[in-house]
């Protein structure tokens, strides 16, 4: 099912205000971007999920190169925006190729959320999402994220504040089934979120209390899609391209949002769209040459869009992530900590990728189910 988006499907070139660099340096926001007047909501346009600590600019660009149609920032604190702060600004780093981009805000106070949207709009951002699903204590103890589900009236007010300030069709909400299994609020609350202005609803069909345990119950995605007229985006246990295709076919949702599946292998977007269009995918273990290209491209984007020294440090966690279930990862992780230059890193990567392959020249299959839910 392809959804017409909330606004007409026309493109316009709009000028994003050039920003006052401020005391903490320039916000890397483009001076001019080709803004989409609408977001794509169709099954062959998969989204990249918000991933705190991971969906930064380089990773978003990487996923876009592999076919992510829309990307969402890491969650950004509305209060952090209002009070200002370098780390909040860093989360909003973007560039002209990073479009369309949805900024995800978290907070529990509708007033702060509204002001957060205003600040982002002044900086040239057009699309917003309210985080009403994060189960992490640091977030929920302030009444934000999945804790909003404990008080549905507050959630509706928060959605309303974000959507009103964002403008018609410009904001959505990402949520779960409820906080606790005994108090399920979704899909029942869906129509109220729509009335409050949500132009799309992303549902991760687990309860807040569950964290990432158990299974995502995709059946509730279909139930939600049946009671709202805005697009429903599926999130939850989409570890492979095959999961994505199965999910849209079983539930009829507008599209899917890849999270841990994209962290394990950003090529999931290409594989998903190919599979959806009826292509047969190559089965089997990942090819070391392809994997090496993905890793090197990710590293190159980090160097291009970040601070060189921090990029070098970040590779110590990024590289092991792509090869996490292969033999020798622990030793690799250790050796990477001694890399002081890009040349050292290159050597380590080559030594790891191209030695110790299986007799067929491939790596063993990566297990994507044990990815970092615990890290958020
Ligand atoms: C490391 C990590 C960080 C996440 N950060 C966010 C976030 O900032 N905002 C949000 O709404 N969800 C966040 N999520 C949840 C994902 O967007 C997604 O809903 C969830 O992982 C379920 O999808 P999956 O099972 O296919 O991974 C995060 C998940 C992980 C694993």
Task: Report the order of strands and helices.
Answer: EEEHEEHHEHEHHEHEHEHEHHHHHH
Tell me the helix content.
Answer: 25-40%
Structural class: alpha/beta
Total DSSP E strands: 11
Indicate how many domains the architecture comprises. Answer: 2
If you compute it from the alpha carbons, what radius of gyration comes out, rounded to the nearest whole angstrom? 20 Å
CATH class of the largest domain: Alpha Beta
Main beta-sheet annotation: 8 strands, parallel, barrel
Mean of residue pLDDT values:
86
CATH topology assignment of the largest domain? TIM Barrel
Describe the structure.
By secondary structure, this protein is of the alpha/beta class. The protein folds into two domains: 11-276, Alpha-Beta Barrel (TIM Barrel); 288-353. It is 39% helix and 12% strand. The protein is built from 15 helices and eleven strands. The strands form two sheets. An eight-stranded parallel barrel has the order 3-4-6-7-8-9-10-11, surrounded by five helices. Strands 1-2 form a two-stranded antiparallel ribbon. Strand 9, helix 8 and strand 10 form a beta-alpha-beta unit. Helix 4 (110-122) packs parallel to helix 6, helix 12 (288-305) packs antiparallel against helix 13 and helix 13 runs antiparallel to helix 14 (329-336). Mean pLDDT is 86; it is low at 1-35 and 363-371. Bound molecules: flavin mononucleotide. Residues 49-54, 74-75, 104, 131, 133-134, 174, 204, 235-238, 259-261, 372-373, 375-376 line the site of flavin mononucleotide (FMN).
